[in-house]
Specification:
Elements: H1 2-30, H2 35-51, H3 54-75, H4 79-117, H5 134-187, H6 194-222, E1 234-237, H7 238-246, E2 252-256, E3 262-265, H8 267-285, E4 289-295, E5 299-305, H9 338-348, E6 352-357, E7 362-369
Parallel strand pairs: 2-4
Antiparallel strand pairs: 1-3, 4-5, 5-7, 6-7
Length: 373
């Protein structure tokens, strides 16, 4: 683009030079003055005055005036040079203004659009108020930022989708493990009484319902843009609920010295939390698990205490991160999502979760606000 501007300036100045030269030559031919004759005429007038012939000198003076006027006209022909120079400067200034105010910003905008089309979104386009494309510049840069934002959101959505699918897959393992355990108990003939048999069957059916619900969650999530699991809180009595969920696990003891503690939470998600914590303790600590419920005026806490090796101090700041697994997990299989799920569900329920290494073992505490009537 720049070479076309330079070529146009050269052409315009060349045409101006030709035009000025033609006019100058025409004027010069019509106003040629013989300076030698002019000097002779002046000397002749001087001699006539000395000789006292004033009338003849006066006539010669009139002719001299005419010659003088012609000479001045010839001198004024220099104005064409200044005319040419001034118009040339004006032409250069006009084309420079067009280049810097219109063409160069447009060329910059074109290059920017080509880079955006090529996928380079990191280069900003500065907004210049002095050019006529300021609004277009702002619009293009806004488009670039929106594309970056859209790609970032898309990346986060994909990551969240993977997290939810992995979380649901992890949650399915807990009821399946219970189904297998009670099925093996039935196969081994541990249901020695009709009551035990009925209990085993009830647990198996309950866990099958849990699996069905989790697979429904996975299916619904795959059909929507949801990036988080939905919570369905309801008011219920906590101690009986916790006992019901804890009693299905072997080597667990529960202590609750309260007649009634009402909370407002999602029962299904809280059941998943209890299952995750107890399953993790059984898998990694391989000891008995003591469950204790405490409360104050505002909150109720459920403490899960095992007697294993605990969690290394260097892992504590990261233990709630998704897919993070402690260094002492050994060869146990896992996805690193258990405590991530626990923290998320507790935060959505208005509660919290904390970990504490004891003299021997680990204590996990989940806290919920007490529901006041």
């Amino acid at each position: 683009m720049k070479k076309y501007i330079i070529s146009a300036v050269i052409i315009f100045i060349s045409l101006l030079a030709v035009f000025t030269a033609v006019i100058y030559n025409f004027e010069s031919k019509n106003s040629e003055v013989d300076l030698g004759s002019f000097a002779v005429s002046v000397n002749e007038i001087e001699q006539l005055i000395l000789q006292g012939d004033s009338e003849t000198a006066l006539l010669k003076t009139d002719g001299l005036k005419t010659a003088l006027a012609e000479y001045e006209a010839q001198k004024n022909n220099n104005i064409y040079f200044w005319f040419f120079l001034g118009i040339s400067v004006l032409i250069i200034a006009v084309f420079a203004y067009i280049w810097f105010s219109v063409l160069r910003p447009f060329e910059k905008l074109s290059r920017f659009a080509e880079r955006i089309a090529g996928g380079d979104l990191d280069i900003p386009l500065n907004y210049e108020r002095t050019n006529y494309f300021g609004k277009f510049t702002w619009a293009f840069d806004s488009m670039r930022r929106e594309i970056i934002k859209a790609r970032t959101c898309e990346k986060e959505a994909i990551e969240n989708n993977k997290t939810v699918i992995a979380s649901l897959s992890h949650d399915i393992k807990t009821p399946i493990a219970s189904i297998r355990a009670y099925t093996e108990g039935l196969e081994a003939g541990l249901d020695t009484t009709p009551e035990k048999r009925q209990k085993y069957l009830s647990v198996i059916m309950s866990k099958c319902d849990d699996v069905a619900r989790l697979t429904d969650d996975m299916f619904l999530h795959s059909l929507s843009d949801l990036d988080k699991l939905k919570m369905n809180p309801e008011v219920f009595e906590l101690c009986g609920f916790v006992k019901e969920n804890i009693n299905i696990y072997p080597d667990t003891d529960i202590e609750c010295n309260y007649d009634e503690i009402m909370v407002n939470a999602d029962k299904n998600r809280l059941s998943q939390i209890i299952g995750n914590i107890v399953s993790n303790a059984s898998k990694y600590a391989k000891t008995k698990i003591d469950v204790r419920i405490t409360r104050d005026t505002e909150n109720v806490s459920i403490h899960f205490r095992d007697y294993g090796e605990g969690i290394p101090d260097e892992d504590m700041p990261f233990i709630f991160g998704k897919f993070y697994r402690g260094k002492n997990c050994g060869g146990e299989q896992g996805s690193g999502l258990g405590l991530f799920i626990v923290k998320y569900v507790m935060e959505q329920s208005g509660g919290s979760v904390s970990l504490k290494n004891c003299d021997k073992g680990l204590e996990v505490t989940i806290t919920l606000p007490v529901h006041k009537k």
